[in-house]
Amino acid sequence: MDKSIYTILSILFFAVSCNTKKENQKLENTIKSNTDLSIVFTASELKSKSLEELRLIRNEIYARKGYVFKSEVLQNHFENKEWYVPKEKEKITLSENEKHNVDLIKQIEAEKKKEFTLTKPSNEDSSKYSDTIVVNYKDNKKILDILTLFPETNMGSWDWSQKERIDLVNEIKKNNFFIDIDPIFLNIKYVEPNTIGLSVIDGFWTLSVYDIDLNTKLVITNNIVGDGNSFTAYKLKNQKLKILNLDTIFGDYFNSLLKNNSEGCASLLNENEITFDYDFSHPEFIKISSWYLHKIETDCFKGNTIILKLNKSKSLFETKEVLWEENK
Fold it and tell me: Domain locations in the chain?
């Protein structure tokens, strides 16, 4: 080969190689250090990115704060970064510029998502997309429509605007699937006709609905965080929610566990209240069960599990049964 041609090819190869390295480095460094609060992204530099790239860029903002991801793919991705230091018990807060960057990325993701949904994947094809979650709207219409009615104050320690919830349900209504582009609260664990459960940044949130008659329903939400359960109950009539007193709906169901009403037993029950899990999945019953109490505490307790049954005529739950169940 002519020496001059060899030299030219070598130069071209070097140039292409450098350019490839620059592109890879550019993607790797798309997020600058969040310690520099002056960094603000622009739409022009983000629109050329793919949905997958945008997802990584947006989540890196949280990763640099030490957020621990529930997505195994994301967690594995960031654990390979030298700068990533997971902080499981710390609340994630963003600066104004970081919030701007997240909102802008989500806006561009939404635009790209709309383009994507014009060529809607079938249920079979949707499994190819890691962020695509199939939900049948017709089968779950009741619970999904109620999800859009809640005031934002019901969302506990996390923000999920009513508009975002309406947009999500409309997307499911149109396509029978949605594309999850948010690591904080759109991690839907299950959707059933009378209950829905969502994994959120600091815990778990459930919404359950119980039919009283054709026009009236009881609606219960449970915000589950490190220090226990936080309930809110509503009466739903004519698509309007009215908040209810929890004592009126449930009564003093914990006292039904006590075999011995002594001060010591009452104190022991109070200390173990945080160990009770609540199952709202049945359309007529609520199961409340402690994973900690054992039958050996027979001097104080009749059981570690309470079954509440819906009394439709009174619009409340009554204790149906107290029993011992094997701890799992």
Answer: 25-119, 204-323
d(CA 156, CA 29): 35
Beta strand extents in the chain (DSSP E only): 132-134, 177-179, 187-192, 195-200, 203-211, 216-225, 228-237, 240-244, 276-279, 285-290, 305-311, 316-323
Query: Where does the pLDDT of residue 129 fall: very low under 50, low under 70, confident under 90, or very high at 90 and above?
Result: very low
Cβ–Cβ under 8 Å, residues 234 and 244: yes
State how far the Cα of 154 lies from the Cα of 221, in Å rounded to an integer: 8
Of 152 and 165, more confident: 165
25-119: what CATH class? mainly alpha
Residue 115 — pLDDT band, cuts 50, 70, 90?
low
Q: What is the DSSP string of 195-261?
A: EEEEEETTEEEEEEEEESSSSEEEEEEEEEETTEEEEEEEEEETTEEEEE-HHHHH-SGGGGGBSS-
Residue range 145-168: mean pLDDT, rounded: 80
- DSSP-based three-state secondary structure for 137: coil
How far apart are alpha carbons 57 and 181 in whole angstroms? Answer: 12
Q: Distance between CA atoms of 88 and 84, rounded to whole angstroms? A: 12
| Res. 304 pLDDT band, cuts 50 70 90 | very high
What pLDDT band is residue 237 in, cutting at 50, 70 and 90?
very high
